[in-house]
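User: Here's a structure from my thesis project, written as structure tokens. My advisor, Dr. K., wants to see whether a designed sequence matches the one we expressed. Can you design one independently, without my sequence as a hint?
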């Protein structure tokens, strides 16, 4: 796997995620790319893998599924301002977030 996925393909270590290593990424890829689904890593195990776990958020994983998407919106003609308003109205129920994407407390 080192030849297929050399270190340059992965982010370099950073102070934010200093545990992330190319070797961990390769390990996860090798477990995900197993052809036999019975031997392939499960979603739950993948979420607990050291390379992914730094981003794991229990609330996000077990959040309710989103509602069905209304494709008819995409088929309508709108001005740029109308698109902006539609996008804002989609965002508005979630409220503002902090700089790191966490929903701000009101």
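Assistant: Designed independently from the structure alone:
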């Amino acid at each position: 796997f080192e030849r297929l996925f050399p270190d340059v393909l992965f982010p370099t270590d950073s102070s934010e995620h200093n545990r992330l290593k190319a070797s961990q990424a390769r390990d996860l890829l090798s477990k995900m790319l197993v052809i036999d689904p019975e031997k392939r890593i499960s979603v739950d195990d993948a979420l607990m893998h050291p390379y992914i776990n730094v981003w794991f958020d229990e609330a996000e994983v077990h959040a309710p599924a989103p509602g069905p998407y209304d494709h008819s919106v995409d088929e309508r003609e709108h001005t740029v301002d109308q698109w902006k308003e539609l996008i804002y109205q989609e965002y508005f129920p979630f409220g503002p977030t902090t700089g790191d994407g966490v929903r701000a407390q009101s």
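When you compare it with your expressed construct, this may help: The CA atoms of residues 7 and 22 lie 6 Å apart.
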